[in-house]
Amino acid sequence: MLDSMARVNQLLDHEDYNRYIETINELEKERCFCKHGFEHGINVARIAYAYLLEKGNRDLSKEGVYAAALLHDIGRWVEYQTGEDHAEVSARLALPLLKECGFSSADIQVILAGIREHRRHYEDDLSLLGEALAIADDWARDCRYCSAQKQCYKFKPEMTQIIY
């Protein structure tokens, strides 16, 4: 049986992906707010994919959604060091990884657009993947039970509600 997630597994084994995640983990070691490592990426992937299934998506592959979600924050470490927007950096860093893992040019363009859009919450002109990643990025945070809720600039009471 052909592994339908082979390219995602190749991505997870990629030296550069793992270096980015390790750097993020190190920089966020003392962070009291949500972290942006593998666990966050896989949670975003699961939620985004479920969201797209519930919307009746037939165009975006599971593998593409998971790749986008796992890569959407890999530029966080650059943002911490330079202030550059991590969505743009993540897309830039994702491009060679996606190519090396065998994603088609068409798939790459969709994935990179979703990564770039994941911070533009609830805007009207988002791609379907960008919308799914933006929503899943919020829902993947455990705001309801977070001890840093009062200090968090991202916290909104509606983030503890299940809506869409």
What can be said about this structure in brief?
The chain has 164 residues and is mainly alpha-helical. The protein has helices spanning 6-13, 15-27, 38-54, 62-71, 76-82, 86-100, 105-117, 128-139. The longest helix is centred in the first third of the chain and has 17 residues, at 38-54.
Structure description:
This protein is mostly helical and 164 residues long. The protein has a single domain (6-138), classed as Hypothetical protein af1432 (Orthogonal Bundle). Helix content is 58%, strand content 0%. The protein has helices at 6-13, 15-27, 38-54, 62-71, 76-82, 86-100, 105-117, 128-139. Helix 1 runs parallel beside helix 4. The radius of gyration is 15 Å and the shape is globular. The model has no long low-confidence stretch (mean pLDDT 87).
Question: How do the helices and strands line up, and which of them pair or pack?
Answer:
Blueprint: H1 6-13, H2 15-27, H3 38-54, H4 62-71, H5 76-82, H6 86-100, H7 105-117, H8 128-139
Helix pairs in contact: 1-4, 3-4, 3-8, 4-7, 5-6, 6-7, 7-8
Which radius of gyration do the C-alpha atoms yield?
Answer: 15 Å
Largest sheet, in brief, is: none
Calculate the terminal CA-CA distance, rounded to whole Å.
36 Å
Q: Give the low-confidence spans.
A: none
CATH topology label? Hypothetical protein af1432
Could you spell the SSE succession in H and E letters? HHHHHHHH
Mean pLDDT: 87
Determine the strand fraction and express it as a percent band: under 5%
The outline comes out as globular
Structural class: mainly alpha
Number of DSSP helical runs: 8
So, CATH architecture? Orthogonal Bundle
Q: What is the CATH class designation?
A: Mainly Alpha
The fourth-level CATH homologous superfamily is Hypothetical protein af1432
How many beta-strand elements?
A: 0
InterPro entries: HD/PDEase_dom, HD_domain, HDIG_dom
Protein name: Putative domain HDIG-containing protein
Pfam family, one: HD
Organism: Desulfosporosinus youngiae DSM 17734
